[in-house]
């Protein structure tokens, strides 16, 4: 049985699955915003909000990727 690895919340946020998950979630929000507005299902304001959320998530993912790189670890 492999040893149990205990990570802190910060270490968990800096793991590869979390970073990739944030990027994918951001891409889904941004894509959904465009698709839903094109179909006329959401307003321009809601589209802007969804796009902003998507880009914030993607930006956070990129920032965490850089932090992991500067710490000398692999994402």
Description of the structure:
This protein is mainly α. The chain has one domain. The protein contains 3 helices and no strands.
Strand content: under 5%
Mean pLDDT: 89
Q: How far apart, in Å, are the first and last alpha carbons?
A: 25 Å
Number of helices: 3
The general outline is elongated
Using only C-alpha atoms, the radius of gyration works out to 16 Å
Low-confidence stretches: none
Summarize the SSE layout with pairings.
Elements: H1 9-13, H2 16-38, H3 44-71
Summarize this structure briefly.
The chain contains 3 helices and no strands.
List the main descriptive attributes of the protein structure presented here.
75 residues; mainly alpha; 3 helices; 75% helix; elongated
């Amino acid at each position: 049985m492999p040893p149990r690895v205990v990570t802190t919340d910060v270490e968990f946020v800096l793991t590869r699955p979390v970073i990739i998950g944030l990027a994918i979630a951001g891409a889904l929000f941004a894509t959904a915003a465009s698709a839903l507005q094109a179909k006329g299902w959401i307003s321009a304001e809601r589209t802007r909000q969804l796009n902003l959320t998507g880009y914030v998530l993607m930006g956070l993912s990129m920032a965490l990727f850089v932090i992991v790189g500067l710490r000398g670890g692999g994402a």
